[in-house]
């Protein structure tokens, strides 16, 4: 431990009070915290396995977990290939949603005319279910990558716009006044005051958007495609390859978890002032 | 409704002027007008320098205006960076100010790791960094506990001794006003106006102890309180809503 008495310990403020819980919320849970849910899942899987075998339930109706595990292993090339397609749609769509969403959010928060004209449209546009316009995009843009990216982006875009607008509007008043007394330009104000103070909110929106984007990509693939986990899901279900359907679900959830963790990592790197060292 | 009415105040360069008054008397509004953040509906705020250019000002706000996303160093040097001052010159100023406000060793601490009092020192250093002609302080110590406030008052006395800035300082505390001011301006509410201007005769350089033990302290305290009491009473009869 540091011997200099007046340096605050990393887990304390200089006043000796514990750091506010908001900063600790970003810490990853300790691995021991995973023991209980892991145990619960293992128990459920075991009951499932035994029940299916005892009652002689056919595999097309409900395959035992062991069969799902075998499908994961046997079809790994197929799953890997299609997961790559889905993942690229998710990442491209999410990226597009972030770029467009943050830009629009910045404009809405800073340009009153845009706020008055565009923001109500953005909000009411959410009453249009994106799945309903997916077929339209298919008609216009065909079966390639682009319409899927577009569906994914449309789903992810809204939470990012809203959180950007809220985050920027919540910028501390004194901070903005300070920028005025320093005669800062609008760009400086955005770069050094509004964006840094909106970043935590933007990341919250991005987390919601990320999970929505996975749903968006799979849905777009279900609507019509020749690659991706959604496509594979359609085909496997039609052939009653139920174990593979479960395997796809497992892969999809792993993708979701992976992306969520990646985003959490980026957040930690981007917001060094929010974490306790 | 008028926030301020017939306010006529002249601040000589190099003077430390403290505004006191009840809540809602427009102290903050007046300060913001001097800072150019608000504008009077009639009349004007004039500030002149020897060379005719408009003087620069810097504001120290109450509460947490220190940027949580910057280290202490970057917080202090922020105004300089915005003005396009180069790294080396910036570093020199920051080094000097970190010593001035007594934050040596905390160069790379995040604001959330500091105490409230230390954060407020960062805010003061940041304001001093741009070397303003006028330093405007809006209840900068209002959120601090009493002991920390005393410490920072002493430090501000020292800093002022070294820089001799023109300071306009807003506070609720008569103690604080007497400790710091060359002149106390008592304001009244609804509409905000200037009631009295009381010169504070304590010698400089000052210490808090010297001011407190000065024979004139009690009399001056009573004089300021006399000027304020009716206003404070009157403002308590009115409904809320004049905090800013």
UniProtKB/TrEMBL annotation, chain A:
Gene3D superfamilies: MetI-like. It is a multi-pass membrane protein. InterPro entries: MetI-like (IPR000515), MetI-like_sf (IPR035906). The chain crosses the membrane at residues 34-54, 90-111, 118-143, 149-168, 198-220, 240-266. Residues 1-21 are annotated as: Disordered. It holds the Pfam family BPD_transp_1. Its main location: membrane. GO terms for cellular component: plasma membrane. Keywords: Cell membrane, Membrane, Transmembrane, Transmembrane helix, Transport. PROSITE patterns: ABC_TM1. Residues 83-267 form the ABC transmembrane type-1 domain. GO terms for biological process: transmembrane transport. The keyword Transmembrane applies. It is found in: Cell membrane. Belongs to the binding-protein-dependent transport system permease family. PANTHER family: ABC TRANSPORTER PERMEASE PROTEIN HI_0355-RELATED, ALKANE SULFONATE ABC TRANSPORTER-RELATED, MEMBRANE SUBUNIT. This is Hydroxymethylpyrimidine ABC transporter, transmembrane component. It comes from uncultured Thermomicrobiales bacterium.
